[in-house]
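@channel sequence for tomorrow's demo:
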Amino acid sequence: MAQKVILVDDLDHSEGADVARREFSLLNRTFAIDLSDDNQRRLREALGLIEKVLESSREVRQASRARRPTDSPVRLRGHTTTDVREWAREQGLEVPVRGRVPEEVLDRFLAAHPDAVPDREDAPEREDAPERAAGASGRRARTERDEAPETA
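structure tokens (generated this afternoon):
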């Protein structure tokens, strides 16, 4: 038994011998559609217009989402989070290898290192800022780093 395939135009749903699968590219993507010769001509004209419009246009990118301010730890003067992690491990405190240093560890580091407390204008406003700053004597404590000879 023989079968006959009848292609139908995807735009106007007409049948005809001139309906065929047509491929076209748009925005670096390839599409396929069944069209008659007349609708293929209309599609080419529309794509030509779109190409002209795109050549004269510029892409607008969606603005990135602003990050919400977090309760970031006080910035440490003269110390890095690596210094805090090393000190915490020496003290037997658990501290993650990456990510945020726990507040309790940071508080203990600041109590042990008053020189790390930033000036008021350097520090972000925090509810517990007076407690942290209370340990600051204004004098810088000597550390092993100060006593180590410099190498060039």
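heads up for whoever presents: The beta strands are 20-26, 29-35.
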